[in-house]
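Standup, Tuesday
Yesterday: got the pipeline producing structure tokens again.
Today: sanity-check two examples.
Blockers: none.

Example 1:
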Amino acid sequence: MTRPRWRKVLRDVRGNKTRTFLVALSIAVGVFAVGTTAGTWVMMSRDLSADYAAIDPSSAILFTAPFDEELIRSTRSMADVREAEGRFSFVVRLRTGPDEWRNLRLEAIDDFDDIRLNRVRPERGAWPPPEEEVLIERAALGLTDADVGDSLVVRPSDGTERELRIAGLAHDLNKVPASFSGTPYGYITFDTLERLGYPRAFNTLHLLVDGNTADEHHVQAVIDDVRDEVELSGRTVDWMWIPEPGTFAADDVLQPMVVVLGAIALLSLLLSGFLVVNTISALLMQQVRQIGMMKSIGARNGQLVRLYLGLVLILGLIALCIAIPLASIAAYGISRYLASLINFDSTGFRIPVQVLALEIAVGLLVPLAAALYPVVSGVRITVREALGFHGVGGGHFGRNRVDRMIQRIRGLSRPLLLSLRNTLRRKTRLLLTIATLTLGGAIFIAVFSVRASLLTTLDESTSYLNYDISVDFDAAYDAGTIEHTAMQLPGVAAAESWGSSTARQVGPGGSEGSSFELDALPADTDLLRPVILEGRWLRPEDDRAIVLDTDALGNAPDVGVGDEITLRIERRETTWEVVGIAQTTLSATFIRIGTGYVDLDDLSSVVPPSELDSSLRVGTTQHDAAFQTSVAAALQDRYDDADSRTTSIRTTAANNEAIQSQFDVLTVFLSILATLLAIVGALSLMGTMSMNVHERAREIGVMRAIGASDGGVLQIFVVEGILIGLLSAPVGAALAVPISTVLSDVVGEEFTRAPLSYTFSLGGALFWVALVGILAALASLLPAWHAARLSVRQVLGYE
């Protein structure tokens, strides 16, 4: 037979369904927030890991001079090399309009039915593609302005226009999503490669090391041995891409999401604790006289503590029934959306076991822990105090300075003055409610501030590159000739020839680090405005000085300004002095190899100009995207006529658009979280206001008995809710500063290896002020309207 105390608990749960629902909802919103963020995190990481492992990712890719099958066989026979595979990768120009062209990266695969590393998988259409046809990566089809079965007009490096029919779609998880890079990808056979005028050879070597592939030092050592073997064959390794083990191409976008998800989950957990403390305190306040009656007939404090903690446990179970399904649906929807952006396959709806365990812990243990103090404090009240309790204010309002100041206010309407007094009557309740809203508002504003910081960083990166078009050539060309050719075109305001190569730092024992790009340019250039984080920029009088960006520094974390480093450039070792550290230039590519900047004359004294690749930076008279595109097309035609083979032409506008798309993924994600937190804040305030209305039911009856109208009662509670919301706004804005600063720094380190340019979102703060006022009014309206509909007899008889 159920004991009386537990019958009371069950009666409390069933007897006041509105109160039960509101308390359970207050617990559920915290579980929902934690479950949604954790569920998204787990589903994304698991699906992505499984999808990535299925493609047999390589340990490294070496970009070299053309080689044949013999080099692949000799590499496979090396110790600690498990697998090696060759492909031919190159860029052609793709026509997307009458005078519009964009880069199209093609990859020639020798045997589509025997891809061993970085697998490209069929999506739909022909497999392998027939001769003079191409497979387009599924995420890139929209950038081609065509569909399966249509023909593409491409222009290889020889300048002739060819047609390639789209035979179907492929899925390549090892490629940067085309929506991020702005560059579509395609796959062809070696027969088609020859038809396009390229040699039947390989120029990229995909490698999988044997042994511990998670050991970066082991991987680096094996790849160094392979590089030495390739160079002994007389070929130059242009650069090596050695990804961090277990990471994939779009990891630089995923990791900031993971960081933000983790931070928001922890903050949501804290927010849930505040909600529980607030709601349980309000619940106990309603039952003060009941506690007095139970103690008068012999109930001990320990028994009452167990009774109310049991009530909390039941409410937690109800909250779990509400939150777990909703959180699972939300997490599934968000992870599906992110999967479509990052271009991996989601395995379907499910509730991960660890997320379920976390939700149960949050829904049961956190409420119990949060309720422990208010329960213990509440049941310690004496019988005399409990039986003499009269509800709101407890007879103590007006005794402190703040209360007396409120009483002296004149000129306000009676409902408004009553709202102000009621707001400050329960100061502990008020502080808990404000703390909950403050934390929610702080996180909301912090999310907007991280977004603003991302956009500020993008603007700074745009001004970093003071040119509009970059042109890469397939070999070394006379600088004066290619500059003169460009300057003859209408719309070209400046043209500057740069040299480029790759470099690797040589360590004390002869070990070499990862490759980074080396840009050789005039020290007094006007077409680059780097953001210098430490040290200074190059000077014409420098002798073998170098400025490293933060990505290049990531491969050599011990290097600082003033250090001398030994670089291996075109198989020559030379010493350079680091004079500055520059902010990484945001790029559409996710292969972050880093960049070092040196004076063109200095590099020419080390490496003959004939061994350097030529490139050109062009400034145009107008800077909009359409004008840049038209000038780029004219440059392509002019260099084709001059028999100067280009490998890539890219406008700064296109690059910025691709970077913006990367940022958009994160900002949309942040906006989703901000909306979630706004909902949590609204529900928490609704729960608090509902508790206030229930607690003051008899007071409402007295007001109604002396002639208060329904509208007057509504006004008192709605204004009270708005006042609570507005009181929390400035504190939330202040707290958002440290939270958003930390988040911006962490996200910046993931994106650019340096903190973002922090920008506090004033618009986000003002938006929250307006939003919290609206939410407070709506959250107060429903419980106040419910109270106003009660008869005088009902509310005066309320216990």
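Example 2:
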Amino acid sequence: MNDQQTGTDGAHRPVRDLADDHVRRLAALDPILAGDLGLTERQDELPDLSPDGTGALVDACRDTLARLDALPRPAGAEDPDERRCARLLRERLGAQLDHLTSGEPQRAVQELFGPLATLRTAFTLMPVDGEQDWATVAARMARVPEALAGYRASLTEGRRRGSFAAPRQVVRVTEQIDSWNADGAGRGWFAAFADDAGVGAAVRADLDRGARDATAALGELRDWLATEYLPAAEGTPDGVGPDRYRIANRFWNGADIDSAEVYDWGWSEFRRIREEMVVEAGRVLPGASVARAMEFLDRDGGSTGVVVGGEAARAHLQQMMDDTIAELDGVHFDLSGRLRDVESRLAPAGSAAAPYYTPPALDFSRPGRTWLPANADDRYPLWDLISTWYHEGVPGHHLQLASWALRSTELSTFQTSLVGAVSADVEGWALYAERLMDELGHHDDPGSRLGYLNAQMLRAVRVVIDLGMHLSLEIPGDSPVGAGLRWTPELGREFFGRHVGGGDAMADSELLRYLGGPAQAIGYKLGERAWLTGRERARAAHAARGAEFDLAAWHAAALDQGTLGLDDLVPELAELPAARG
């Protein structure tokens, strides 16, 4: 994070300095966030998950917004990096304040987006290269009971206010804890995580004690959720309704939306992609339906193949990323230096069913990583993993987030890390990256292209189901499921299972994801639409000036600007230069 009042080029940067100061305050409140940024201080601690911790976050956001308001306006032409940072800071802190003060932290029981998942992921990202690292892990494990007590206090405050998570989410989180505590031959995930530590007797004893206490605290939380919280939450609806959805949409997507327009557009995308999938299924297996073609690819692999064994699949995906970097570098992107540092890893047990990505530390002391969840049969058909790894790795999440890390000292940490990142910008770029690879001809194999279309279908279905279930929207008359009815989770699960490949576990996990994180899932397609619209407007602007549009140069300029909410992304993308210097 920047400590000076001028940038590396001598530019005056009061807004970016304020943004960096805000990140420092957040890192002081949240040691997990500090570790994500590559800071080594207080990595033996955990954040305060109690109502007091939420209150401290609220105070920090309000204070930074007040200081932003007090900054003098620039006398001359405004630095575009300063302008973008000011808009991002104001929008993001406003959205976070709405989220925090509306009571969401007091009902945050969710499989994927809740505090428990964040807490466990923090351990998987800690350095474990020597005795001192493991001593820090042991010290952090010892604080898990305190962190869980604070989390329980927040849920208790929500219960006092009559604000609950939906029972379906609570049941899933108890199942998730059961899965974690069953790991390591019943000793628990924390014990299994520390099994390979080559340490002396004292640190070993601390690790064993910390793992035992953390596992016991998780078990106590699980029992409280099941026996006290769940009965009290009975009757809480799965859908959040329009008011909570509006706040959630701003939080995840950085925009206000016309829900009717987005819902209709989601259906149009569903219909378009469905037609393409029918054609591609016939190329995979002549005369086959989409479902039958995907079943064939799951069983046989087709020309894309099947990899047996998690480690073999991990190695294959690593090689795929390395090959993609070599092919794209110097042609469509600059992928030199630290941008090449990306690892493929196996996800720990109890993770969500879908692959995911964790970004590098800003100093690249921790590389970017893609994570592959285990399949129950330990077989990994590649037809639907190829496009997924373009999304999670290169040119998707890794290229964008690692590019931001490289610019963090020129912009601000807030603009170039997940602290200020807008989910729809990040996920929209990654979905745009999948489409770009199709445009560049990387899905000439019919199985691979059906996998790409299946990934596109997943995101279109997300728009329809997420909006439909939370806002209780009517299902169109031409829908193959529930025509004329209002959406329910049961109809959403049936619709998903009919139109997206991946199996029952994937469908169940996705449904819980939409219900537990309203409006997050619609950001993929909304973000992709914004990136595509910005690209075409930039292309048209260049044509109007008689200038050549260089897509690689436009990509570089787009990645250099840091994150933006969807309200600002399209106009900024449309104005970017697209010529090589």
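Quick observation on example 2: The beta strands are 306-308, 342-346, 356-358, 368-372, 379-381. Residues 201-233 form the longest helix (33 residues).
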